[in-house]
Amino acid sequence: MPLGAGMKAPSHLAGEDQSAWRLGRWAAAAPAFAVPLCLILAPIALFLAYSFFSVDHGNVVYSPTIANYVRFFTDPIFLPIFWQTLLLCLAVAILCVLFAYPVAYFLTSLRGRRRYVLLVLLLVPLLMSYVIKIYAVRSILGGNGMLNRTLLALGVIDKPLMLFVFNLNAVLLTLTVLLIPFAVLPIFLSLERVPRALRHASADLGASQAQTFWRITFPLSFPGVASAMSFVFVLAIGDFLTPQMVGGQSGFTFGRIIYSQFGMAYNWPFGAALSVILAAVVILAISLGGRFGRRGERT
Amino acid sequence: MIRVSSHAGALFLAILTSFVFVLLYGPLAVPIVSSFFSVSHGAVDWSQPTLAAYFALTGNDSVLDALRTTLIVGAGAVALSVCLGTGLALYYASPNAVGQEFLQFLIFLPFLMPPIITGLALLIFFREIDFERSLVTIIIGHTIFVLALVYRTILTRLQSLSNSLVEASYDLGASGWQTFRLILLPNLASAMAGAAILAFALSFDETMITLLVTGTQSTLPVRLWAMMRLGFTPDINALVALILLFTTVLCLLAVRFLIPAGIAAGAEGD
Which residues in chain A (10-49) have CB-CB distances under 8 A to chain B? Predict the structure, then answer.
C-alpha cells in the first residue's frame, strides 16, 4: 500500500477532529469516484430504469410498467430464440473446451521457454481485430469459400455444401474458432497448478496413465474448465456481430434481437429489458464459473 | 510439468495442437494472400501478383477518414484511461481509501458485461442527458471499456513495489507529490506503457460499443464492417492485411513491455 503510507489517522486528535478527519477522507474520495459513478454506474442505472418504460409513436413514455418483461415471456417469438441462443452458446463453450483442453495439456507437457512461447502464440489472435477474424472465417466457410472449393477439387462433394453457410452452424463454428484462446488460458493455468507429486504418487501406487489422468489431473483441473466455459459462454452470448455476419436469415440470436430494437424495430425500452435479461444470464454464468472455478483453489 | 510418456498419446496431442493453430491462423492467411491478386467476376486471378489493391486504398477517402478517426479515438482513450487508471490504482492502494472494493467493482463492470450492454447503457445515457453522439462519445465509450485492463495492469505493478520505497521517501522529507513523481512514476512507467499499448490495441479493434455510440463518424473496424457486408473484395483484403500487420507489431510491443518478466519468472519456477 504505497502512496500515503505516512498519513495514518493521527490518534492524538480529539473526537471532533477525528470525525472531521474522516469527512476529509470522503472528500478526498470524491474525485476518485466521480468518473466511475457518472460514466459507469449512472448509465447502467438509467438503462435498468429504461427497461421499465415504454414507447408510444416513437417517443419514450417515462412511466413504470413491466410490459416489456411480460412481452418477453408471453410473445411466442422471443423465448424460443432465447433458449436456442443459450443452447448455441453452451455448445460453443463445450466445443471450445474440447479443443482447448488437449492443447493446454500439451503445453504443460512442454519444457521451459517453449511452453510460454506457444502459449503467447495461442493468445496473440485475441489482440487481432474481431471483425477481421469473423470475415476470415467466413471466407473459409462460405458457399464459394475455401472449404467448399477444396472439397470440390478433391472430389469429395460434387456441389457446394450449404451446411455451414449463413445459418446457426456457421455461427457455432465461427464463434468456436474465435473463442478457443479464451478457453486455453484458464485451463492451462489450472493444469499448471496440479502438483507433480500427486501424479507421481498415483503412478507409484500402480495407477495407469489413464487412471492418473481421470482421477487426479482432470478433477484438479476442473476449476479451469469451469472458468473457461463461463468465459466462452459469456463472450458468445453477448456477441451480435458474428451472427449478423455469418448467420444469414436463419441464424437469429438473442444478441441480434437486442441490437435490432435499437435499429429497425426502434423500441429502446424493450431492447433495454431484453439486455437486462441478458445481463442476468451473464451474471449467472459468471457466478457459476466463479463458484466451480474457486472450489479447487481451496483444496 | 506433465509428462506424456505414451508416444501415441503425445503424437495425438501434438497433432491436435497443430490443428488448433491452423484454425486460429489459417483463416487469416486467405485475405492476406488474396490481397496480392486481382479479382474479376468473383474469381481470384492467380496468374499475376499485384499491389493494385494497396494503391487503391491510398485514394479511398472513406478508409483514410476512418483511419484518422480510429487514431484520434485511440489516442484519446489511451490518454484518458492511463491517467484515470493510474489515479484509481493509487487511490485503491492508499491506506486512506474508503469504498475501494465498490469502486473496483464499478471499474470492472464494463469489462465483465457484454459490450452490447455497456454500449446500450451509454447510448441511452447520452440521449437522456442530451449529449450529441460524436467522436467524444466514442472516446468515452472506449475509455470506459479499456479502463479495467489499464487499472489492473498498473495496480499489479504498484502492489509489487516494496512499501519501504515510499516510506523511505516520506522519511527523507519528500512531499506526496514528490514521492509520486520521483519514486512511484519511474517504477510504474513500463507498466503504464504496456497498459497504454494494450489499451490502444483494444480501442483500435473495438466494434460493438462503437457501433452503438457513434454518430456519423466511423472507426476503421466499423468502416470494415460496412464494407464486408458487400462481399470479398481486394481492397478489403489489402486493408485487412495492413491492419493485421499493425496489430501484430502492437502485440510484439506489448509483449516486450509486459510479458518478459512473466516468462522469465514462469520458466524459473518450472
Answer: 25-26, 28-29, 31-33, 35-37, 39-44, 46-47
Integer Cα distance of B254 and B102 in angstroms: 29
Scanning B250-269 for CB atoms below 8 A from A yields 250-251, 254-255, 259, 262-263, 266-267
Dump pLDDT digits (tens) for B97-127: 788 889 999 999 998 889 999 999 999 999 8
Q: Is residue A57 domain-resident? A: no
**Is the Cβ pair A36, B176 closer than 8 Å?**
no
pLDDT score at A268? 87
Strand bridging mode A54-56 / A59-61 = antiparallel
Give A78-84's long-range contacts (Cβ < 8 A, gap of 24+): A78/A257, A78/A274, A81/A252, A81/A253, A81/A254, A81/A257, A82/A254, A82/A277, A84/A168, A84/A253
Residue A185 is assigned to a structural domain of this protein: yes
pLDDT of A5 reads 42
User: Binning pLDDT at 50, 70 and 90, where does residue B27 land?
Assistant: confident
Of the candidates B96, B143, B251, the beta carbon closest to that of A127 is on B251
ipTM value of the model?
Answer: 0.82
To the nearest whole angstrom, how far is the Cα of A85 from the nearest Cα of chain B? 15
Counted residue by residue, chain A has a size of 299
Spans in chain A with pLDDT lower than 70: 1-18, 20-22, 24, 143, 294-299
A95: containing domain? 67-298
Q: Looking at the domain assignment, is residue A17 inside a domain?
A: no
How do residues B54-100 score in pLDDT, each as one tens digit?
888 888 888 889 999 999 999 999 999 999 999 999 888 887 778 88
Q: How far is the C-alpha of A208 from the C-alpha of A210, rounded, in Å?
A: 5
Q: Which domains does chain B have, with CATH numbers?
A: 53-268 (1.10.3720.10)
Mutate to test the interface with B, among A39, A52, A164, A173 (most CBs of B within 10 A): A39
Answer whether A198 touches B (CB < 8 Å). Answer: no
Domains identified in chain A, total number: 1
Quote the percentage of chain B above a pLDDT of 90.
27
Residues B166-222 have pLDDT tens digits of: 888 888 888 888 888 888 888 888 889 889 988 998 899 898 999 888 888 889 999
| B203, three cell numbers | 480501442
Contact between A50 and B124 under an 8 Å Cβ cutoff? The reply is: yes
**A94 in B contact zone (CB under 8 Å):** no
8-state DSSP, B38:
E
| Residue count (chain B) | 270
Say what the pTM is.
0.85
Assess B121–A contact: CB distance below 8 Å, yes or no.
Answer: yes
Smallest Cα–Cα separation from B91: which of B109, B113, B107? B107
Q: What CATH number is given to the structural domain containing A216?
A: 1.10.3720.10
On whether residue A53 sits in a domain, the answer given is no
